[in-house]
Amino acid sequence: MDRSNKPASIGVAASLPQPTVTVHENRIDASLPTGESVTVYLYGATVTSWKLATGEEQLFVSEKAHLDGSKPIRGGIPVVFPVFGPPPKNHATSSLPQHGFARNSYWEFLGKSSSESLGNDTRKGDDSVVLDFGLSSAMLSEQFRKAWSYDFGLVYSVTLFKDSLRTSLRVQNQGNQPFEFQFLMHTYLRIKDILSIRIKNLQSKTYVDKTESYAVKTDSSPAVVIMRETDSVYQSLDPNVPIIVASSEDDNPIFSIFREGLDDLTIWNPWVEKAKGMSDFGDDEYRQMVCVEPGSVSCWQTLDAEDAWESGQTIRSGH
Ligand SMILES: O=P(O)(O)OC[C@H]1O[C@H](O)[C@H](O)[C@@H](O)[C@@H]1O
C-alpha cells in the first residue's frame, strides 16, 4: 500500500557536510556547514567569538584584551568559579582573586560531538557541534590549589547551533568533603549602541546595586535602560522566563537569554569613568557592549562529596 506521508529517503551520512573543528595550540575554532562559527580559548575556556552565518559577530571582546594568558580575557564569555566578585573574608574562597580561578586557568579540550538535524531535510547536515572543556584540581596552578584545596572536576560545554549558542557547566565534587561555590557566565554581548537597547523581563525584580554600596532596589520600569554605570545583581528570577535584550527603536529582540538552573543575573556596563580606568578596555568601547550574566551568586551552592551540579544558558540571536 502506498503511504501518502511516506518519508523521503535519508541521505548517506558520510556524504553530508559536517561541522569543522580546528584545534590550535591555544584555541579551538568550530563551524557549522551553514557558516556559523565559534572560537574558544583554552585560557579560561573563554568563548571569544560567536558568528552567525552572515559573519556577524555576536560577542564583544575589547581591542585591548590580553589573549596571551597574562590576564583574564576582557570580553567573550569568561567563566566565573568558584566565587563571584571579591571573595568574602572568612570564607574558603577568601584567598582567591576576584571571580575565582576558572577564567585564568588553562583548561583541557576534551573533544567534540555533533548532533544531526531532526528536520526533514537531513541533507543540510548537522545542526550543532558541542565542544567540551575540562578543568580539575590537579590542573590548577600551585597558588590556586593552595588557595582552594578541594578536589573538583569541571566540564564546560559550548554548543553552537544555527541561531544560538549554549554554554553549560557540570561541577563535580571529587573529594570527600563538601564545598561551597558560586558560578556565573560573564557574557559580553556585542550591540550596536548601548543607548539603543533595553533589557526586558526584569520588571519589579529585586536587585543589588553594586554602584550604590550594594543597596537593595526594585525597579518598576517595564525595561532596563542603561544610561550610566550599571552593576546590578538580580536575584531569584523565574528560571523559565528568558531575559530579552531588545532594540529600543522597534522592540525587536536582539538576544534572548534562556537559563537552566541559574536564578541570578548580573547586568554590567562600566560606562565612561570606569572604562577609562581599565587598562584592557578602550575608552569608548562601553557603547558597543552589555554584560548579561546568568549565574548562581546570591548565595553559595553546597556540593556534597561525590555529588554533581549542572546549569547552563542558551543565547539566541534575533527572533
Ligand atoms: O574587571 P573584572 O574583574 O573582569 O570584573 C568586571 C565586572 O564583573 C561583574 O559584572 C561585577 O558585577 C562587576 O562588579 C565587575 O566590575
What does this 3D model show about the protein?
- 4% of the residues lie in helices and 42% in strands.
- The protein is mainly β and 319 residues long.
- The chain has a single domain (15-317), classed as Beta-galactosidase, Chain A, domain 5.
- It is globular, with a radius of gyration of 20 Å.
- Residues 118-123 have low confidence and may be disordered.
- One of its GO terms (biological process) is carbohydrate metabolic process.
- Catalyzes the interconversion between the alpha and beta anomers from at least three hexose 6-phosphate sugars (Glc6P, Gal6P, and Man6P).
- GO terms for molecular function: carbohydrate binding; glucose-6-phosphate 1-epimerase activity.
What is the compact description of this entry?
It comes from Elaphomyces granulatus. By secondary structure, the chain is mainly β. The protein contains 2 helices and 21 strands.
- Spatially, the strands of the biggest sheet line up as 6-7-8-9-21-18-17-12-15
Strand content: 35-45%
Terminus-to-terminus distance: 42 Å
- Secondary-structure element pattern, one letter each: EEEEEEEHEEEEEEEEEEEEHEE
Give the count of helical stretches.
Answer: 2
The structure class reads: mainly beta
Which small compounds were modeled alongside the protein? 6-O-phosphono-alpha-D-glucopyranose
Bulk shape: globular
CATH class: Mainly Beta
Evaluate the radius of gyration: 20 Å
CATH architecture: Distorted Sandwich
Within the CATH hierarchy, at the fold level, what is the topology?
Beta-galactosidase, Chain A, domain 5
The multimeric state of the shown protein is single chain
Binding site for substrate: 74, 98, 103
Protein name: Glucose-6-phosphate 1-epimerase
Enzyme class: isomerase
EC number: 5.1.3.15
